[in-house]
Amino acid sequence: MIFTIPDILAPEELEYITSSLADAEFVDGKLTAGWHAKLVKNNQQLKHSESQHELKELIKKALSRNALFQMAVRPKIVHSILFSRYDTGMSYGRHTDNALMGSFSRSDVSFTIFLNSPSTYEGGELVIEGADDEKAYKLEAAEMLVYPSTSLHRVAPVTKGTRFVVVGWVQSLVRDASEREILFELDTVRHAIFAKDGKTCEFDLIAKSVANLLRKWAE
Questions:
Q1: pLDDT (tens digit per residue) in 131-161
Q2: CA nearest 180: which of 206, 155, 213, 156?
Q3: For the domain that residue 13 is a member of, what is the CATH number?
Q4: Secondary structure class of 174 (helix, strand, coil)
Q5: Which of 89, 128, 147, 171 could be disulfide-bonded to 106 (CB atoms 3.0-4.6 Å)?
Q6: Do residues 203 and 113 share a domain?
């Protein structure tokens, strides 16, 4: 399931992050790439520091309060958050994200939060491949794209300006993507019934099914 979340960051959070990155030190992005991804990765990432840790915690807090992210992704661990910079000429070629990252946390779901307006740079689209097509994404600042870590994807070359993004990964409570989607759809209906009619018999039955499926599938 691929979807976008607008305004994942509050305006003051976005301003704080972008101002922090403006004067920050970046290092070669190949340092965090797998052995084969190093061949196609050409970007820069924020150097490890105390301020980087603070920015990561800010991102985690933003994700934890977003109801759509929580309901669709069912996060168990949000990990390996990176602040990436693409200057003119930089790109990230076709690759699949590593299955295990950090302290051997599984990557079930990937996300990219765009930090600057698409009008400030040219190129730099995030391209995700499907079975018989591909789709390019270039979102507004503070907007997030959520997509399967299993997908082949790439970042097109930046031809003008600078692209700033946050990327990260999630180990979900529910490993199987189709099961997560079933839970998401049932939970969406459950919330709609409650908003329209309150706590009805139908609401209780769907709530029971969501709870029992989550109990069955969660790990």
A1: 899 999 999 999 999 999 999 999 999 999 9
A2: 213
A3: 2.60.120.620
A4: coil
A5: 171
A6: no
Are the beta carbons of 51 and 20 closer than 8 angstroms?
yes
Backbone phi, psi, residue 196, to 5°: -85, -45
68 and 130 together in one domain? yes
Q: Which residue range(s) make up the domain with 87?
A: 3-172
Instruction: Please tell me whether the overall predicted TM-score, pTM, comes out greater than 0.85 for this model.
Output: yes
Query: What is the dihedral sign for C-alpha 165, 170, 175, 179?
Result: negative
Report how many domains make up the chain: 2
Write out pLDDT tens, residues 101-125.
988 999 999 999 999 999 999 999 9
Length of the chain measured in residues: 219
Instruction: Please check whether residue 67 is in contact with residue 17, taking contact to mean a CB–CB distance below 8 angstroms.
Output: no
